[in-house]
């Protein structure tokens, strides 16, 4: 048997059940991982609440983890027992042992620990996609980053600054502002009062060519109002609720704006894409340009507490779970 966290019915953090389930065996093309750490992300909340539907109930949730290969199934090459591996976007991660297709994981370099990997794979590859693929960030660009003290936000600030961008970060408290400044943000806004006016002041009226918004419903219109003509609104999260009922004329009235809703799987869906993006992420971390900030760590049996902390915006940096 192996420990897991499952959703039996959609709901709040109390819907998370710490269950023992049968330990899986790897099928052809699969490996069995003894997972040493699992990442906690807002997408896990969406699956728990039912905003994103699970394939069946009960289901193990969680999207990313890292650990040690314990067994290798038939027809697997390039991965051996004892290798350290990680994956970023495969539903079912809140479990201590998992069988998974070998082409969905990447091997970890010696410079990256399994706990670091669990704290960075989904978030770090999201940032790689946002800054390098959704829109190739250029030196000298000024960007606006919502929830800049979160797991993705801190990485966005660091990597964007490394690429030569001027970062405006938004946070909820002054304590978080200090973390964001230390992560490379040139300007930090505390609170969400009249954000467009503050961006106009910082940019001398030019506004910004791109906004990265993970908050969703509460900030969508303000994000549009921060863009320069033909600017790009990148909506990649729903922390305050899903954005609905958007009239396309809103984009025309504000200067022929663009809006995108990227999904990470689109950018790393093929094994070679996953390996390439991961290699760039590992290189940026190894160079010291990107620091993986594990702000919180919870035992797997306390996953509900981890979700409460995440939803109340009490977390800073990445949150991980570890086996009890």
Automatic annotation (TrEMBL):
SMART domains: PKS_ER. Residues 11-321 form the Enoyl reductase (ER) domain. CDD domains: QOR2 (cd05286). InterPro entries: ADH-like_C, ADH-like_N, ER, GroES-like_sf, NAD(P)-bd_dom_sf, QOR-like. Coiled coil: none annotated. Keywords: NADP, Oxidoreductase. PANTHER family: QUINONE OXIDOREDUCTASE PIG3-RELATED, QUINONE OXIDOREDUCTASE-RELATED. This is Quinone oxidoreductase.
């Amino acid at each position: 048997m192996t420990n897991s966290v499952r959703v039996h019915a959609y709901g709040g953090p109390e819907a998370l059940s710490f269950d023992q389930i049968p330990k899986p065996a790897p099928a052809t093309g699969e490996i069995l991982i003894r997972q040493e750490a699992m990442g906690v992300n807002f997408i896990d909340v969406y699956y728990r609440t039912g905003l994103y539907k699970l394939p069946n109930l009960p289901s193990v949730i969680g999207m990313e983890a890292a650990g040690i290969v314990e067994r290798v199934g038939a027809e697997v090459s390039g991965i051996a027992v004892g290798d350290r591996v990680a994956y970023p976007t495969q539903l079912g991660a809140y479990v201590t042992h998992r069988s998974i297709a070998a082409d969905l994981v990447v091997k970890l370099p010696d410079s990256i620990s399994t706990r670091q990997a669990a704290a960075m794979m989904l978030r770090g590859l999201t940032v790689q996609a946002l800054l390098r693929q959704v829109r190739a960030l250029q030196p000298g660009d000024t960007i606006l980053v919502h929830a800049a003290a979160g797991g993705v936000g801190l990485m966005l600030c660091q990597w964007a600054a490394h690429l030569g961008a001027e970062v405006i970060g938004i946070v909820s408290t002054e304590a978080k502002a200090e973390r964001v400044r230390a992560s490379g943000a040139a300007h930090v806004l505390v609170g969400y009062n009249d954000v467009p006016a503050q961006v106009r002041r910082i940019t001398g009226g030019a506004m910004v060519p791109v906004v990265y918004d993970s908050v969703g419903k509460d900030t969508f219109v303000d994000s549009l109002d921060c863009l320069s003509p033909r600017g790009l609104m990148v909506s990649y999260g729903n922390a305050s609720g899903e954005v609905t009922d958007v009239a396309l004329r809103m984009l025309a009235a504000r200067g022929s704006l663009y809006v995108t809703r990227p999904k990470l799987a689109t950018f790393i869906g093929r094994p070679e894409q996953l390996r390439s993006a991961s290699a760039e992420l590992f290189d940026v971390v190894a160079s010291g340009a990107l620091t993986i900030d594990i702000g919180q760590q919870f035992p797997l049996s306390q996953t509900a507490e981890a979700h409460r902390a995440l939803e109340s915006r009490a977390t800073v940096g990445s949150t991980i779970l570890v086996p009890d």
